[in-house]
Design brief:
Alpha-Beta Plaits; alpha/beta; globular; binds flavin mononucleotide; about 260 residues
Length: about 260
């Protein structure tokens, strides 16, 4: 059984590829996820946010009922983690270990998979060039196959790209991201918006509604996955002035499903 959370499709893609290889069922990680553990192992696939675990993923894991974790432990179902990232995960493996410790679970293995970057909210951060995006998408299947083989062989490992200064990034920058990373007020649509509804459909938190003017409005549950921004076919969604000149990325349609 594989749970995944995704904003722009990367983690869903990785989860689906692994599901095919391991003959497991992939499930979207949300409050209504199935609660009976099943299959040979339990996998969690999600993106890395600010060199840590997305706060909503932590919440979703912690809100799974105690009976779920009891069965995982009693039946000795191995738990494995795959984090997708644009480049590096720093100390995110230690963070997910701590979260899982709270539910009495020690993961068997943790991997990272480098996928196209979708983070654009701060100055200096943008999506990858088309060449880099294509290279990452070309290299991902080999990495995913390798991970699948290790899961089947029950290899115990932490095999991730940490990058430079990992303690500083996770220890110092992640808490700032958690506290200040998203300002709901900054999300808005421009006059290019035609009210098509794609942004609302793409929001994994169901956090976008349409007001009387036919324009999207953001509720309080934004998890900063950027699905709304990247899915807009008219680049009509902006975050303050930060994103006006930034690119967009969404997993290409031929890789979905
Ligand atoms: C809020 C936010 C923070 C991110 N922080 C990091 C990071 O610390 N390191 C990194 O390599 N990529 C980072 N990224 C990029 C994503 O982890 C990466 O593109 C991921 O594959 C997106 O997965 P998804 O398509 O399943 O949402 C970040 C993306 C977002 C939206």
């Amino acid at each position: 059984m594989i749970y995944y959370f995704t904003g722009t499709g990367n983690s869903e893609y990785v989860a689906r590829q692994l599901a095919k290889q391991l003959l497991e069922m992939p499930y979207v990680m949300n409050a209504n996820s199935p609660v009976e553990p099943e299959g040979e192992s339990i996998g969690f696939v999600f993106p890395v946010y600010s060199w840590g675990v997305p706060p909503n993923v932590e919440e979703l894991i912690l809100q799974m009922p105690a009976s779920f974790w009891q069965r995982v432990n009693v039946e000795q179902l191995p738990v494995w983690i795959v984090m997708t990232c644009g480049d590096e995960v720093a100390m995110a493996p230690e963070m997910i270990k701590k979260i899982l410790k709270k539910v009495g679970v020690a993961p068997e293995s943790i991997w990272s998979v480098i996928m196209p970057n979708n983070y654009v909210l701060l100055p200096g951060f943008n999506v990858d060039s088309k060449e880099v995006e294509q290279r990452k998408l070309k290299e991902a299947p080999g990495r995913i196959r390798e991970i699948g083989e290790c899961i089947k062989a029950h290899r115990r490992c932490v095999d991730v790209v940490r990058g430079s200064m990992p303690r500083l990034k996770t220890g110092l920058i992640y808490p700032l991201f958690k506290r200040w990373g998203i300002s709901i007020k900054k999300w808005h649509s421009t006059d290019a918006c035609v009210g098509c509804g794609i942004c609302a459909e793409s929001c994994p938190q169901c956090n976008i509604v349409y007001d009387y003017s036919g324009r999207p409005k953001w509720g309080p549950d934004c998890c900063s996955c950027l699905a709304c921004y990247h899915s807009c076919p008219r680049h009509a969604i902006e975050y303050g002035k930060e994103t006006a000149k930034k690119g967009q990325y969404f997993l290409p349609p031929n890789l979905r499903k």
